[in-house]
Please model this.
Amino acid sequence: MLDSRLLHAFAIVAEELHFGRAAARLHISQPPLSQTVRKLEALLGTALLVRSTRSVRLTPAGAELIRWLQRRARDEEAMLRAVREAAGGSAGVLIIGLTPSAACSNLSRVLFAFRQQYPAIELDLREMSSEAMPQALRQRHLDLGLLRPPFADADLAPLPIYSEPMVVAMRRDHPLAARRQVSMRAIMAHDLVGYSRQHSRYFHELQLAMMNATGMSARIVMESMIPTNLTLVEAGFGVALVPASLARTRTAALAYAAIRGPGSARAELVATRQPGSANAAVDHFITIMRQTPAHAD
Model:
């Protein structure tokens, strides 16, 4: 590798095209400067300057070396700018893990606002289960995870970020469809589409708690996960307890009602991050998510 001091000395000579002025800028005498340039020429195996008693000019090789040094200087400036912007959270890459049901939250508005405010940050969105995200965060495959509370271990710095009520989804011809709000006891008089414990543990346990609060037994006719449970509701298998944000989907075929009284509950979403991570872009994203309304006006 060429000594950067040799390259710097040559760049000053090339800029001044005068050894005396270049030596003065470098705070050295002229003979050592001449020796430095000759050493660089010897290392490169070619003349870089044409010297005479009256002038100094660049050879074609010298001119090419100057162009290379200028490109390198621009690249270094760009690198420093990118590093500083990344350190400040205004550039770089932000890899976000999303539990599938998070897509029905205020996420689309958060992503839009974030991209408007931080256009230099590349977003990499990866859909995965809440159960898989902790390991992905610890292995540094993710910068940020948006997942359900039971999987948010303390070392992932969990922060409650989004909360919404659970509602009941039903076909528009269902007996409960004319009501704007219903009780859990009224819901449990009908067949229910439940959640798979294996594939949707959070909502399985949340629904179980909602049903237990009534002291009644339920008829679970089938178990699935979001959004397949809405397909089953539309097919007439039963009603389903879902996050309120899902009420924006399938509105032509389905009706939704608020749940009031014993058994009503809210679905929570938490933000988690790599242990020990200082990625400022994560903080920017969380700030925007907390400032974005749960529902569009």
